[in-house]
Amino acid sequence: MHDLNGYKAAESALSLVATAPNTVEIRNARTPADIFYHSMKNGKRWTAIVEPCMVAFCPTDTAGIADDEHRFPSGSSRFRDIEKEPTIQGHETLGVLVGGSDTALNYLSNKGMSVGSLVFVDNNTGDGECVNCLRGRAGLYCSNGTLFAGIGTTTEAEGWAYRQTGRIQIPGSYVGSEGFMVMPPEKLYAVQANGGFSSLEELASNTQADALACAFTTLNAIGAKHWADDHRFDNPKVLIIGAGKIGLHHGSALLSCLPNAQVFYADINEGNLGRASKFNNVPSDRQYLVDSKESSGTAYGKEGISRGFKFFNDEVKQLFDWVIDCSMHGVVTGKTIETLCNEVIIPGGVFATTNHSGVGEGVDAFSSQYLLRGIRFVSGLSPLNNYGRSIDLIAKRRGDLAKEMRLIDGGLSSLTANLLATGGGELRTQMGATTFVTLTNPDLVNKFIKKP
Questions:
Q1: Residue 72 CB contacts under 8 Å (≥ 6 apart), including other chains
Q2: What is the H or E stretch that residue 211 is in?
Q3: Domains present along the chain, CATH in parentheses
Q4: Distance (Å) of CA 36 to CA 108, 114, 148
Q5: By mean pLDDT, which of 285-289, 316-320, 378-382, 412-416 is the weakest?
């Protein structure tokens, strides 16, 4: 047992540990008490202690433990000494602040948090020392590389990560009741309890702060907040390709910024299409069930779009102000983007991608045909500094979001391990707009649930 400034910490805890690419075992693993000790001697930065209570699955968790060719971040040495640096995934984390250094707790007190507070953990961390970090920019923009706790560390960040924490890879949140995370205090955000939650699913909706913040990043890149002022209309037509979890959140974030925006969904999965459309009140004439046998270039060309959406007629020449790709990797290729830009996106419009791995060959973003038509290309790959906005929106819509949450029975079970290892496993056909959440510490959540 360790004493971390008054917090009694176990030496090991039941965890989901990746032992090889796409292989996850349930086993006892070393807790990050050593990170706390190391940091107390080296700047005291990594000294806020959080016990996870709920963790939502994200495909990026699986990408972090993929083989070398497909791993995110690229080149991350995720598999190291399994005893000293166990590979523990999990980054969509809802937890409880349980302790920390005096410095960390004083900082958090000024932000309205104290021991016992419900918090969301931002896993995207820079070194805190470079010019971008000192400006307050997000960890993704650290000049010396980014550490993604519970996913992996970029090769550029390995040096400062080891100097600050004594480890290169920082464990995530798939840990049991004796497990915990150690993070910089500025990476914690207070969750709005507002008198408590009516169900575990409603509480679980707060795990979506990361995914929803990524949607706000896309909208920031597009310029949604000032769209009406800059373009003199507030009802852009927006095609969202992919009506899964990410597409659902993009629609919700968009309508919170521009309530008059006209959202259109396209997906090959009828269930996803229905759930995302219902969540964001998208009428049936703005829903397109794409034929999975049809090539994406044909399905998303002008003819396919006009045929798929009853909203349009044959006389419409140009269709969308924005197209946001929220589909899986490889669905919308460079060639498909080229078709969208040439046939579907209005001059002065935007193509946005949420793809972590690039879109492949086939589109030259700086060719004269796009520059002269004012078509812009943007990305939304990270939550950046948008957690405040996402947490506020979740507080307003947590009742609706609760319907999209599904708790996995058994906590750290073989089902969750397989989900993490394979990116879906036996739950793959039930994924999409549904978010799978693991309750890692039932005892922690009881005080946040309203009594019947």
A1: 60, 63, 64, 66, 151, 152, 356, 357
A2: helix 209-222
A3: 2-190+404-448 (3.90.180.10), 211-379 (3.40.50.720)
A4: 17, 18, 17
A5: 316-320
